[in-house]
Design goal:
By secondary structure, the protein is α/β, with parallel strands linked by helices. Helix content is about 20%, strand content about 30%. The strands form 7 sheets. The protein has a 7-stranded mixed beta sheet with strand order 5-4-1-6-11-8-12. A 5-stranded parallel beta sheet has the order 14-17-20-23-26, with no helix packed on it.
Length: about 375
Amino acid sequence: MSSNKKVLGLIFSNMHDATITDLTKERTMGSVLFGGRYRLIDFPLSGMVNSGIDEVGVITKSNYQSLLDHLGSGREWDLASKNGGLHLLPPFSHVTSGIYRGRLEALYGVWDFIKISDADYVVLSDCDVVANMDYSKIVDAHIASGADITTVYAKDVLSMEQAQRATVFGINDDGRVVDVLLSPNISGACNVSLNTFVISKEFLKNIVFEAASRGLISFEKDILQARTHNYKIMAYRFDGYFSRICSMDTFYKANMNLLNSENRAKLFIANRPVYTKVKDNPPAKFAIGAKVKNSLIGDGCIIEGTVENSVLFRGVKVGKGAVVKDSILMQDTCIGNKCEVSCIISDKNVKVSDMRMLTGSQNYPLYIGKNAVI
């Protein structure tokens, strides 16, 4: 990091679970599968590692067993070290704290961990944005501007529904945040928060403990919005490729967008790789007569039928005569012989028997829960 300042990374794994409840019934948002082989937490975690942040805490809340299995010791991200490294933080760490209701309570609950870090600055990130960020540039911009808080945003065109699940900033010509709208009833081009913040450790301590004494729980409402004119809040514009996951519809489209090679090239950058847990599965197998077009096929898949415009995770099987189109099939899904599947999202270990027909639409994909048998 060019600023030569020590930085601590904090990732909130559960902060937006309610936006995709079908996928987060048994897992955190951070451990939701994405793009054929990744989990959503891989993107902020890899970005931090690539930016020279060697100490990262992952704040959990509930349903975090799959997240623990995925992250393990942090070896895949080169965070399995005695100094710094990866730390999985429980939802409460001392007697006076309980299950947190907002970001400020979560930070108060894990303050004992933050306190012992020798970091000068803290990067806060959620798991609802798929992007490949260089956090070192954001930290440098924060220091150069003398900001109390730096928030990351991007220009995006939002529908009314998407805006109601977003934080939108008003920004002046100097790049300072002058207005904060939470779940606004608007549409069109907006400055959309990517739920990533940089703040000094000392300033973070002040607002976290003051919030605890006043019963404040929401960082966005009680700090960013309520104190826009009291604190110097600067906005850092992210111009790279990103997808915001705020509904099942946006999750589906974010995966489908990766079928475009230009989008993949913008997200998966050669000198900024996205790391994930390696399973060491065998290569995908394509039987004689199999047809695959414009699809992402994970390791260990066995394709005997037709797959078009789809994302298949590790170990998926597509039977003889089966046709899979415009779908996301998660790990170990099995599609039987002569099935027709279109616009579905199947969770892990779904079994679809022979000669079944399942159809959703691109605006309302059909979701099939984990371990379901059709």
